[in-house]
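Why do we care about 3D structure at all? Because function follows from shape, and shape follows, mostly, from sequence. That is the central idea of this module. The next example makes it concrete: a single protein chain, its amino acid sequence, and then its structure expressed as tokens.
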Amino acid sequence: MQVILAQALLGLNVGVFYAMLSLGLAVIFGLLNIINFAHGAMYMLGAFVALIGYSLLDDWFGISLQIGFWASLIVAPLFVGILGMIIERTMLKRLYELDHIYGLLLTFGITLILQGLFSNYFNISGTPYPGQPESLSGVVNLSFMYFPTYRLFAIVFSIVVCFATWFVIEHTRLGSRLRAGVENPTLTQAFGLNVPLMITLTFGFGCALAGLAGVLAAPIYSVSPLMGADLIIVVFAVVVIGGMGSIMGAILTGLALGLVEGITKVVYPPAASTVIFFLMVLVLLFRPAGLFGKER
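And the structure:
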């Protein structure tokens, strides 16, 4: 039982990254109807912004400024969010009236470009992030295991961010305006709301969530140009299981599948890397809209 609990907690540590990334995808698809295949690249970019800000600004530009971990939690999502807004305004907005496949191909191309750029300058096998704060070093005694303090922080922080995002979208005036702007943009604009700006900010916010996940992942995993590519397919499976566009579905499914993956490593390790896709097939067979999605 101790082994199962320990592995479940490690699985939850993975699950919070599934949840944050699938939440960003769900926000973008649910509110804007865009399939953003570049989401994994935004996750990777957030981790690299943290790495560059901490250890490479002085080497590259002669700037004696070190952006620590806590500052990176703000700087990296802002940078990634602004880049996302630029992409939406300059490229994606031209594709809204076309089939979804065009947006998918465009964002896939953006992913390849970003991966290629970073692969030219960084080690593909990964670069350790040296900026984990001292206050989060060490371990915490949970009675059934000693768990790294930073990983526990990442779990709690990610869950708070996920449910705060859900609350804002579902239970605030800002969220209701966003949903109204998507469902009936003409009528919403007639009430004086700037719908194109809302769309741009929403896409930027979804990308910023991916960037934030990248910063949180940097001290745990090696920062690599391919770290997003290794994760994005699993995240898409999470979104499909939860229901395309379902905010709560993305959060709960991401956390649950992280737990399932962790426990599977104890029960039957060879199936750990495929159990999520097996569950996706079952969900699509019996509930094509996803566990929390609405049938159309």
